[in-house]
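Q: Given only this backbone (146 positions), what sequence would you predict?
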């Protein structure tokens, strides 16, 4: 075998390996995607029962119920439709009524979700209290957050 032929084989095998690796990555990432829906989009979509879904919206006022033992019920809404959510676990500190939240869980019925993860959303002006105090003590930050 000449050196030229060996180089050609090395290039061909490298291209085959690279193609196989890219196809494997694309195939696995397609299986692990979780789509983000609002309640209205979810009710109008073709998702099936027991699918893993991610829902974003606001926690409806006066809908939050603490059932004890870290079990909670609340309603996520987009001001058009709503979904009832059950969650067992610790909620984020920023989680409260009339604030944005993202819920990941399993769709049990058309409008009932069993959440496995709850993420609280905040705006760009949010500053954790400990960091705020530290910056104020160093006189680096002068903006007053509430």
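A: Predicted residues:
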């Amino acid at each position: 075998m000449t050196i030229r032929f060996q180089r050609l084989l090395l290039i061909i095998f490298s291209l085959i390996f690279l193609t196989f690796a890219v196809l494997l990555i694309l195939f696995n990432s397609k299986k692990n995607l979780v789509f983000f829906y609002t309640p209205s989009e979810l009710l109008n979509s073709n998702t099936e029962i027991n699918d893993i879904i991610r829902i974003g919206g606001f926690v409806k006022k006066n809908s939050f119920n603490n059932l004890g033992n870290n079990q909670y019920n609340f309603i996520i809404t987009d001001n058009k439709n709503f979904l009832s959510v059950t969650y067992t676990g610790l909620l984020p500190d920023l989680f409260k009524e009339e604030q944005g939240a993202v819920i990941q869980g399993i769709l049990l019925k058309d409008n009932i979700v069993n959440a496995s993860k709850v993420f609280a959303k905040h705006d760009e002006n949010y500053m954790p209290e400990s960091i705020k105090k530290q910056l104020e003590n160093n006189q680096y930050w002068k903006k007053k957050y509430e």
